[in-house]
Specification:
Layout: H1 2-34, H2 37-77, H3 82-85, H4 89-98, H5 102-146, H6 152-178, H7 182-185, H8 187-203, H9 210-217, H10 220-239
Length: about 250
């Protein structure tokens, strides 16, 4: 069944993520020491992707384990019988309203697990797309630096035009992403934005994960879970950039 496949994939992926952390950190440190900017970016992408994916999949395994335990308990003891608890009417009514049935709790856990598993890989695609666009912009700069049959002024004009197109496109794509498709809803804006959308859909390989994105956008539960996880992702980005370094400073009184 699907949940069994999820656990198998999560288990192998978590093992792979935690095994990869040490060589990724070593590679990042080596690239920093050698001042190789492109390698630093690549190792940083790998580190962020592994961190986010490991966090999501560990959380997924915990929730899926809780779901399996809840299913076993449901099979043994049935649904919650609030009358047998013999609480006061105030607490009984409150618990019935807030807790509800045990079947609803199991169904909610199932929804969280399924959505979280899909979000894990969708976020990695987002990260890869962001750095893919930046890589293309950097490559264009290097290409124009090597074109010698054009004058410096012509190269500057062409590079400025292409750079402006990419900057505006990235800004519009980000606004559309954060606003959950507001640029696609306005008739006149959609005609302008479509040109940028078409180009960036190729550069970001969005044809691989576009169905997942639109499935999340039309699902309130998926959007709510994504917003709930956002602070954790920000915390992960901050934590992986924190370094502890012993100082040689000696305090002499």
């Amino acid at each position: 069944e699907s949940w069994q496949l999820e656990l198998i994939i999560s288990g192998f992926a978590i093992f792979g993520m935690f095994t990869a952390f040490e060589p990724i950190l070593d590679g990042l440190k080596t690239a920093e020491n050698a001042e190789q900017s492109y390698k630093i970016v690549l190792w940083l992408v790998a580190l962020i992707s592994c961190s986010v994916l490991a966090f999501n999949l560990v959380l997924h395994v915990i929730l899926r384990g809780l779901w399996i335990g809840a299913l076993g308990l449901r099979y043994v003891s049935g649904d919650i019988d609030y009358e047998k608890l013999n609480y006061s009417e105030k607490f009984t009514n409150y618990l019935k309203r807030k807790v509800g049935s045990f079947d609803k709790y199991i169904a909610t856990l199932e929804n969280y697990c399924s959505v979280l598993f899909a979000v894990s890989f969708l976020l990695v695609f987002y990260l890869l797309s962001f750095f893919a666009v930046n890589f293309v912009i950097s490559s264009i700069k290097f290409i124009f630096d090597d074109i010698h049959f054009l004058s410096e002024q012509v190269r500057s004009i062409i590079a400025t035009f292409i750079g402006s197109f990419f900057i505006v496109g990235m800004l519009l794509t980000f606004i559309d992403f954060v606003s959950q498709g507001i640029l696609k809803k306005k008739q006149w804006l959609s005609k302008i934005y479509f040109q940028f959308y078409w180009v960036f859909s190729i550069l970001t390989f969005s044809f691989l994960y576009r169905p997942l994105v639109y499935n999340f956008l039309d699902n309130k539960f998926g959007k709510r879970l994504s917003f709930m996880l956002l602070p954790f992702y920000v915390a992960i980005l901050v934590l992986i950039t924190v370094k502890y370094k012993t100082s040689n400073y000696l305090s002499i009184n």
